[in-house]
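## tool: complex_structure
## caller: assistant
## args:
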Amino acid sequence: MRNFVFYNPTKLVFGKNTIDKIGEYLKKGKIKKVLFLAGGGSIKKNGVYERVVRSLIENDIEKVEVWGVRPNPVLSKVEEAIEVAKKESVEAILAVGGGSVIDSAKAVAAGYYYEGNVWDFYLEKVRPKKALPLYTVLTLSATGTEMNGNTVLTNERTTEKFAFGSIVVYPKVSIVDPEVQFSLPEHQIVNGAVDAISHVMEYYFDGAENTELTDRIDEGIILTLIETTEKLLENPKDYEARANFALSTTLALNGISGLGHKGGDWASHELEHAISALNPEVAHGAGLAVVFPAWMEYVFTKNVEKFAKFGENIFGIKDDNTEEVAKKAIRSLRNWYKKIGAPITLKELNFDYSDIDNLTEIACKHAPFGELVKLEKEDIRKIYEIAYE
Amino acid sequence: MRNFVFYNPTKLVFGKNTIDKIGEYLKKGKIKKVLFLAGGGSIKKNGVYERVVRSLIENDIEKVEVWGVRPNPVLSKVEEAIEVAKKESVEAILAVGGGSVIDSAKAVAAGYYYEGNVWDFYLEKVRPKKALPLYTVLTLSATGTEMNGNTVLTNERTTEKFAFGSIVVYPKVSIVDPEVQFSLPEHQIVNGAVDAISHVMEYYFDGAENTELTDRIDEGIILTLIETTEKLLENPKDYEARANFALSTTLALNGISGLGHKGGDWASHELEHAISALNPEVAHGAGLAVVFPAWMEYVFTKNVEKFAKFGENIFGIKDDNTEEVAKKAIRSLRNWYKKIGAPITLKELNFDYSDIDNLTEIACKHAPFGELVKLEKEDIRKIYEIAYE
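## result:
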């Protein structure tokens, strides 16, 4: 087990009707005026917007609204929101939405105090020193951003999709009210499941040794995601499945799933970022469903035992031949992704074989990457080829 | 799953040689003078004291020492330390030791700002509003106090052993350096294992439903404790077992193990507190090894399915008859306690049958208690009778 520091100061407020408490929490934090950041308007259809606004009014909290954060969120919207936040002298950011809205809100919170362009944080030119307090109301469980300091953003001008992490952008309070997710379309359940499973696997397969406790926690998260995804596809209003699913996605990336690890592998995430940077229509989860099993196929011989352990404990695979178990594990994961309706090839995402050059180029901007195996250009190309069809 | 708020602001610094960083963390916290609180002197034998002092000197941190916190810590020592802390105007408490030292340090930290007697917090007459910042160096993994806001103390004047919990006494930073535990005697490993397993079981068996993810995490913690305890009794210097053991004890009571639960049952802890209040020579873990299986035997019919799930997932018991599995689970737990050298009867703790009256009287001061079953006086007596031999 590696040495680690675990520090997660986010207050997670979880359960039925917690959404109506957002105003109280802001008031407790002595906040009187927020920048309200949101996406495309689905929160106006499912009642979330109305409930949040009512709670703000009841607690005398003023708001300025910025709408239009889209999936695979972009720099220009963040720049717009920072400008509004500065002009209006807000005291906090209130993000109401899914991972894209919260990731954008983190950039706005840190960008508020920065003279230069916020993209500098993503380029790792400079680290944020300070941020506005961030409050979130999560409406789509998937990325885990509600309880960590990570943010991913796309710069449309350069087709780069980069990330940064900082303690200053951990949300102060995050509200997760599983009931408001009853109306999500199926593909968002599926993408959320794949995303969260991928987060756990990034740690699980990073090559760290003697992480028995963390492995058991990670397997518990993945097993719960598999079980609850199937239940939700049957009955989207199953509250208990929804709650266990939501909690699993949060714990998948709040630090617990990586205790004692090497910080995670993250090669599959890099490979996916190239996919959704090239085609922003591709959901992050969909891209991961395609690319993660391909990565596994390419690298599993470097740690056969761990891939076999995964096969045994997640899919109940038994075989004396460890390599066989590892191979079956990868096949089982892909089959399960297929079963729940996730894409498993680049072709299904409407990429042509010729796009592999482009994907390789974009991904290579950060190469070499990966912890279990440091991937160079040639490795990257081969993984996209495996993922192709 | 029940609604919950999870908020744990302790920074956990975990791993080899982390102990030498305590001075740096205090300095980062702008602390210049601490009350150094410790136990009976074992930290002078194993090098911990010297390393902490060196780190304090290197970071220009002054200290005033108070020694002599004993297992099952007592109010009088806390009162003494509060007086010293006030007189010397320290800026923080630095607890170096096991659960007793850290629990006492929490009382000192909160008592520093309180006009009345600190025992008022334990009597729940008043809640602490403020506390000195608390830094800890853990030398004995067991109670989980290094990452929560709980403290248990005995008032020798009244033979009461009470607890309180508050957000203001969560440690700012806790250092867990598993290597410094290599020299612990066997019975402390055993007591620590029983204590941590009991913490997890208090949640697991509190009657909450639909806690699938938390159940898996809890089972993972217990399985890891069983596995690593056996390894450490074989080889106390097995670092990886030590680290997994230590991390398991921390997660057993930092909030994670009880997510979505009813707050835990805690009847077994009440029953144990009477035991060690009556005989302070009994270690908390030893008392729990005796009383928890007795409680299980008395209440398991109220939630047979859950006790059977425990038997299946922890001890691999298979049987079509659910009640049989539940019974075997309790038997297996007792057998394992016996195997690792924990006591399993009150007799082994040198109690006479006639002491049951006394134990019942003491425990009844807080009765009725328990979440799965609210225990009244007659129930309490019966459980002590089951525990007797």
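## assistant note: The radius of gyration of chain B is 20 Å. The CA atoms of residues 159 and 278 of chain B lie 7 Å apart. Handing back to user.
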